[in-house]
Design a protein that fits this description.
2 copies of one chain form a homodimer. By secondary structure, chain A is α+β, with helices and mostly antiparallel strands. Chain A is 32% helix and 24% strand.
C-alpha cells in the first residue's frame, strides 16, 4: 500500500494489524478494548525492552521485518532466561508519520513470524508518532507451576553451559559497520538472532541454578550471575565456539576471535549454571563455577582476569 | 546530582531507581533479574501506552515529575476502564544521554507518586538512549474473580455516566498553547490528570455494561462504545460540566465551552453505561443509550448530530 502512516491514520492502522491475529488458549480478550485479558494458571513472568533507531538498529542494516524479529526475540529471551514459557506480547511502536504503511506491514510480518516461532500471541500495543522509530516490547510468560530460575543461585562446582549462538551477531555487526555484507551467515545472525526457544524450560528440568540470556555480552552477562550469586566463573578458552567466519572477521578487523564470543551480545543465547553432570545434551559446557575464597565475584578466562572488551551498556 | 545519564551509566541509573522500591503482595520477584514474577489469582489485565516528547508532551509545559505522573495515570486508567484493579507497572524510558540525572530522579518521583495513588508497584523496566524522551508504560491489573467490563455491552435504555474530570485538560492545553499559565486549575489538570482510582471496580459492582476512559475525547471515546455495542448514545448538553474557568478559556479562544468537554481527552475520566437506576452515587449522568432503529451507531448531542471538533488520533 503506497500510503504513509499519517495518511492512513491510527485506527485504520490498528485494524490492519489486529485482523486475523492468532490467539493463544490463555487469551480471554485480545486487542481492541482498553486492555487485554489473560488467564494465568499460577505465576506470571513479565519483562519490557526498548529498541531505538540509531541506537539499537539502523534501517540500512536491518529490514523492517528484521527489526520486528529482533525486537520480539530479544524480549522473549528474557522470559526463557527465567525458565518460563513466553506466551504473549504487547508492542508499542513510535514512528514518524511519513513512514510508509508498507514499512509497518513488513515490520509486523517480522513481529508475527517471530511470535509464531516462540508460540506467542500478540495481545495489545500502541501506535503513535515520534521523531524516530522506537519499538517497546512487553513480553509475558507463564511458569506453569515450575519455579523460576534466578541469576543468584549459582553454586561452586556447577558447570557453566550455553545453548544458542555466541559472537555471531557481534561479528555480523562488525562486518556491517565496515560497509560489508558478508560473510552472510554472520550478517544474518545479527539481523535475525535465533533464540533457542524452549531452552529455558529445558534448563529448569535439568535443575539449572542460574540462567541469563546473552544480550550485553557473554562476560558482562555472566557477571550478572557471578555478582548476585557471590561466585567466580572460570571459562575455558578451548571450549569457546570460534568458527571459521568469526576467525575471518577477526583477522580482517585486527581483533582476537575470542573477543567476539566473550564480549558480543545480542545473539540471545541462554547461558546458565548446572549441577555437575546435569547439563542437558544440547548445551555446551564452557566453564565452571568456583567459590570466592577471599576473592571478589568475577569472570575469569583460563583462571586469569580477562582484559578484553567489556559488554554493551546503553548509555 | 549534577551529572548526565551518559556519565552515570545504565546500571548505576537502574540501581538508583530500584533501591527502596515498594512491593505489592502479588510481587514474587521485582526488578533486577531478566523478568519480574507476579502471582495472579485468576485473570490478568494488561495494556501498554507510549508518550513521546513533542507529540504527547513538551518539556516546557510539563515538569519531569508531571510527565511521570501522566504516563502512569494514562496507563492505569486503561485497567480501571476494564473494571479491574491496577497492580503493577513496567516503564521503559528512552532519553538523550545528555539528560541530567536530576531530570530522571524527578521523573521517577512522579512515576512512583502516581503508583502510590493507584496502589501499584513498579516491577520492571528498561532504560536506554534515544534522540528524544519517550516513555513506554505497561500496566498490569487483576480482575480478582470479577468479570471485565468491555466496550461492547451497552444496551438501549442504559444511562451514560462519568466519574472524574471532563474538558479540563484540553482547556489547560489550550491555555499553554497560547503562552499563558493560568487559570492554574486548568493547567494543573492538563499537567496532572486525576484518574478516579477505584471507579472501575465500582462501575463493575453496579453492573456497568460498557466502560472506557476518556483519553482521545468524550465523543470519540463514547464512539468506541457505540460502534461495537451497535447503539446510539444521546448526550444531554444541559448536564455537561461547563465550569467558569472553561467558559473563560472558551471566550478567550473563540470556542464553544462544550467543545472542550465533548472533544477534550487526556483527563482520563471513566465513562460508561449502566442499567437505568444503577448509576453509582459519585457518577454524573450525561446521556442515554438508544437502539439503532435503522440508524448507524453514533453519538448525538440533544438528539442531533454534533458537528464540533473530533477527538485526537496520534497520526
Amino acid at each position: 500500500m503506497n500510503m504513509t502512516l499519517g495518511e492512513l491514520g491510527e485506527f485504520a492502522l490498528i485494524d490492519r494489524i489486529v485482523k486475523d491475529l492468532m490467539k493463544g488458549p490463555e487469551v480471554i480478550l485480545g486487542p481492541g478494548d482498553d486492555a487485554a485479558v489473560l488467564s494465568v494458571d499460577s505465576s506470571l513472568v513479565v519483562s519490557t525492552d526498548v529498541m531505538n533507531e540509531g541506537i539499537h538498529f539502523r534501517t540500512d542494516w536491518s529490514s523492517p521485518s528484521d527489526i520486528g524479529h529482533r525486537a520480539v526475540a530479544a524480549a522473549a529471551a528474557d522470559i526463557e532466561a527465567m525458565g518460563a514459557v513466553p506466551t504473549n506480547l504487547l508492542i508499542a511502536l513510535s514512528a514518524p508519520k511519513e513512514t510508509q504503511v508498507a514499512w509497518l506491514d513488513r515490520f509486523m510480518e517480522g513481529v508475527l513470524e517471530e511470535c509464531e516461532s516462540a508460540h506467542m500471541s500478540l495481545v495489545g500495543g500502541d501506535l503513535c508518532g515520534g521523531s524516530a522509530i522506537s519499538v517497546a516490547v512487553t513480553v509475558l510468560g507463564q511458569t506453569r507451576g515450575k519455579p523460576v530460575i534466578q541469576r543468584s543461585g549459582a553454586q561452586p562446582g556447577d558447570a557453566v553451559a550455553y545453548r544458542g549462538r555466541l559472537g555471531l551477531a557481534a561479528a555480523g555487526l562488525a562486518v556491517l559497520s565496515r560497509g560489508f555484507r558478508s560473510p552472510r551467515a554472520l550478517v544474518n545472525a545479527y539481523q535475525r538472532p535465533q533464540v533457542p526457544y524452549g531452552a529455558g524450560v529445558e534448563a529448569g528440568r535439568h535443575g539449572a541454578t542460574a540462567l541469563i540470556d546473552v544480550s550485553d555480552g557473554l562476560v558482562a552477562d555472566l557477571n550478572h550471575i557471578a555478582q548476585p550469586s557471590g561466585v567466580i566463573i572460570d571459562l575455558d578458552s578451548g571450549t569457546l565456539p570460534v568458527s571459521e567466519p568469526i576467525e575471518a572477521v577477526a583477522h580482517a578487523t585486527g581483533r582476537d576471535a575470542k573477543d567476539f564470543i566473550l564480549s558480543g551480545g545480542e545473539d540471545h543465547a541462554l547461558v546458565g549454571c548446572f549441577p555437575f553432570g546435569e547439563v542437558p545434551k544440547l548445551w555446551t559446557v564452557i566453564g565452571r563455577v568456583e567459590a570466592l575464597e577471599g576473592r571478589d565475584p568475577a569472570i575469569l578466562l583460563d583462571g586469569e582476569e580477562w582484559l578484553g572488551r567489556q559488554g554493551w551498556t546503553h548509555f
